[in-house]
Design brief:
By secondary structure, the chain is an alpha+beta fold. The chain folds into 2 domains: 21-155, no CATH class; 181-289, Roll (Chitinase A, domain 3), CATH 3.10.50.40. The protein contains 13 helices and 8 strands. The strands form 3 sheets. Strands 5-4-7-6 form a 4-stranded antiparallel β-sheet. A two-stranded antiparallel sheet has the order 1-2. A two-stranded antiparallel ribbon has the order 3-8. Helix 2 packs across helix 7, helix 2 runs parallel beside helix 13 (295-326) and helix 5 (94-101) packs across helix 6 (108-127).
Length: 340
């Protein structure tokens, strides 16, 4: 390997970034971050790839083999980009490094190192007979399909989110933005009733819990102590952190809210008390201030939260349109019905 001086600093942007298959993982990571659903991403990529394969079906194996060779790769880019490294005579181009650095995914040095490693591994794969033209072509088309989905996502911004959808989200989550002072707690409840323990046993267990957690300082310590007692004694109980709630919150029974708000301050522990669910012990974690965030103030936040779903829908719309326009017909399903 003969490397030129290492790339440093920030490279200028440019059009026509390389789309070679080693970057398929980067595409998938980017799409997962935005679409959130791995199953949907893989499905969309597969469909687009299938359509692209149909459009490239007229090429010969010899042509694909030639395109995937070192000389074919170099010839496709040497007129468009400055060389930053050589690997056994094969050039690594600045344009490829820019692609690897896109969106801060890698520094300049990291990009060049990754490209050098990719070239070495690709050459080794060919040496071992793992670089068959059909495999390379399949990966290339998958990368093209992922690139299309990426570009569709990039073209869709928060400004494209429908205003009515944002208003609906604000309405259903209004308590998140407009509320009085909140209190956050963690609690344990020793269950009673048909699926729990006898009330006297549950009370004794809760009282033991209250003593055990008196010396802890945070939610993790509380949970750890309670779970240790549960494992040791076989008690039927739950321990959970609750979403912050107001003094008049009706999602919880009144006795629970009263006990939570009677605790003096962060780290304070309630005495054992009973509700219809069982015997509780509460640890107060923190008080949060009141909030009065208007729709206009929350609009940008909500648009960004909705955006991944909008991008996913647009990608699905693209795939549906391509399938319809291509006139896709699946031949005898018995050929693959038994495939795992």
């Amino acid at each position: 390997m003969c490397a030129l001086p290492p790339l440093c600093g920030t490279l200028p942007g440019g059009e026509g970034s390389s789309t070679y298959s080693p970057y398929l993982m980067m595409y998938n990571m980017w799409m997962l971050e935005r679409f959130g659903d791995p199953g949907q991403l893989h499905f969309l990529t597969a469909v687009v790839a299938a359509i692209l394969m149909c459009s490239h079906g007229c090429g010969t194996a010899e042509t694909h083999e030639e395109e995937s060779s070192k000389s074919g790769r170099a010839g496709s880019m040497n007129s468009r980009s400055e060389i930053v490294a050589l690997v056994d005579g094969v050039p690594i181009f600045m344009e490829e490094a820019r692609f690897m650095m896109d969106g801060g995914a890698a520094t300049a040095d990291e990009a060049v190192d990754a490209l050098v490693n990719n070239e070495l591994l690709a050459a080794e794969a060919i040496r071992r007979g793992w670089g068959r033209a059909d495999e390379v072509e399949f990966e290339r088309i998958k990368a093209q399909a992922a690139l299309i989905l990426r570009r569709v996502g990039e073209e869709t911004t928060a400004e494209d989110v429908d205003l009515d959808e944002i208003k609906k989200r604000y309405s259903t989550q209004k308590k998140r933005f407009v509320h009085g002072p909140l209190r956050k707690v963690i609690h344990s409840v020793v269950l009673t009733g048909k699926k729990g323990m006898a009330s006297d046993e549950a009370r004794a267990a809760a009282q033991e819990i209250a003593v055990a957690v008196a010396g802890v300082f945070d939610a993790d310590g509380f949970e750890s102590e309670v779970k240790a007692l549960k494992k040791k004694n076989g008690w039927k109980l739950k321990v959970e952190s609750l979403p912050p709630f107001e003094r008049n919150d009706d999602r919880f029974v009144a006795a629970f809210v009263d006990a939570a708000y009677n605790i003096g301050g962060p780290g304070g522990i309630s005495s054992a008390f009973e509700t219809k669910f069982g015997w509780h012990v509460i640890m107060m974690l923190e008080d949060l201030p009141a909030s009065d965030i208007s729709f206009e103030e929350a609009r940008g936040i909500l648009a960004e939260e909705i955006l991944p779903g909008v991008r996913a829908r647009r990608a699905q719309e693209l795939v549906s349109r391509l399938v319809k326009e291509a006139g896709v017909f699946i031949h005898d399903k018995n050929l693959w019905a038994g495939a795992s």
